[in-house]
Amino acid sequence: MNSSGDLHDGFDDDRDRLDRDHDLVAVRSLGAALTVDPAVLARVRARIVAADDTSPRPAAPGSAAIPLNGRARRAGSRPPAARLRRRVFLGAAAAVLAIGLTLPAVLPHGAATAEATEVLKASARAAQDNPDPVVGPDQYLKITSVNLWASGAPDTGMWQDKEIITVYKPGDPSRDWVMTRSGRAHLKPLNAQGTKVMQRNPPTPPEYHRAKNGDFYGPRMADWQQPTDAWMADLPRDPDALYQRLEDRARGHGNGLADSMFTYGVDLLRTGQVPYDLRAALFEVMSRIDGVSVTATSTDLEGRIGTALAITGPWDERKELILDQDTGQVLGERTTSGATYAQWLKPGTVMMLTSVTTEVVDSAPSE
User: Fold this and answer.
1) Is the CB of residue 165 less than 8 Å from the CB of residue 216?
2) Is 351 within a domain?
3) Is residue 120 a part of any domain in this protein?
4) Please, what's the b/e burial string for 271-282 (b: 16 or more CB within 10 A of its CB; e: otherwise)?
5) Nearest to 26 by CA among 41, 46, 7
6) Which of 80, 111, 175, 351 has CB atoms 3.0–4.6 Å from 150's, for a disulfide?
């Protein structure tokens, strides 16, 4: 597995403390047409200097990298020419001013685009302002996910399935959880080979499960992809500490640190079970992931319109997390194919589209 060195360009530990006049001269040297706001420059410089203090903090994976095209670069790939190696303040300040961004904070980590950062911070505030519904001891939190999934492989044939999964989480933890699955129904082929391959793979049957603690397929090892209440309670609510926990899990997995961190964060959020205070902290953490950008609007499978936070995956696919930034709730996900699979799959093909809804109900279905 490649290291994350190509994803984050670190500040040198011995960077110089440039004074204000030297900063202005250096930035203006980038071009006569560049307009420099001394107040903005001073704020950026102060934040970078502050980021180099000696107070305890989690180990930083790199600088506040500013994605110039909204995409995360994979480890081992050629970094864009515009991503300068920052020996001193000049590189970061020039990047901020040259592309016209107002950086909300210079963090000791990577960074999403300025617009994505604002959306995530607004969602974090909304999550804090909208506590979770109270589930009585005789009630259930009903979590419904409607899913369109791409099945198969691009070179041998792909098709689209639909499945509805509903989980009933009891308010009394001593009671059984219930899960129903509709089974994966074939919808349509996604490429020329998909029809034959789809016919050779029959739809899956419906399922019904009851189990303590939601262990429907046997005891599970709690993680970002299959969390338990105890595991989530143990996660820190401090964004710096939570960032470190997520980074530790993602490092060495998947296709680059940024992509893996985004994926693990989405894995947790899609469960519909994340407490509001943890959601708020996780939104703050995701605002620090290099390459996360924002789409003005995106629609989930139920037709609800939200704001999409996106990152480009290792095969040029675009992964979106759709949020209601007014409530801090996750609406769903959307993934579309990129140019890498163009010979087998039309770019922009929807490979995954989901919706997640939650409500408190008084009963769960029996088999």
Assistant:
1) no
2) yes
3) no
4) bbbbbbebbbbb
5) 41
6) 351
| Helix axes of 276-286 and 114-129: crossing angle, nearest 10 degrees | 170
Exposure of 50 in the CB half-sphere (CA atoms within 13 A): 10
DSSP codes of every residue in 178-230:
EEEE---EEEEESSTTHHHHHHHSPPPPPEEEEEGGG-BTB----SSSS--HH
Q: Which carries the bigger pLDDT value, residue 244 or residue 55?
A: 244
- Whether 282 maps to a domain, the answer reads yes
Domain with 106 in it:
4-110
Tallying the residues shown for the chain, one arrives at 367
Smallest CA-to-CA distance from 337 within 313, 315, 317 is with 317
- Give the tens place of pLDDT for each residue, 223-249: 999 999 999 999 999 999 999 999 999
Token duo for residue 228: 């338990």
Q: Is 236 in contact with 247 (CB distance < 8 Å)?
A: no
Does residue 339 sit in helix, strand or coil? Answer: helix
| Pairing mode, strands 350-361 and 140-153 | antiparallel
DSSP for residue 366: -
Give the number of domains in the chain: 2
Q: Distance (Å, rounded) from C-alpha 272 to C-alpha 278?
A: 12
| SS3 state at 95 | helix
Please tell me whether residues 140 and 95 are part of one structural domain. Answer: no
Contact between 362 and 139 (Cβ < 8 Å): yes
pLDDT tens for each residue of 309-358: 999 988 888 999 999 988 999 999 999 999 887 788 889 999 999 999 99
Identity of the residue numbered 294: V
Across the chain, mean pLDDT equals 75
* Whole-prediction pTM: 0.69
CB-CB contact of 228 with 274 (8 Å):
no
Q: Which residue has the tokens 């007014």?
A: 326
Answer whether 324's CB lies under 8 Å from 119's CB: no
Q: Tokens 């709730």 map to which residue?
A: 329
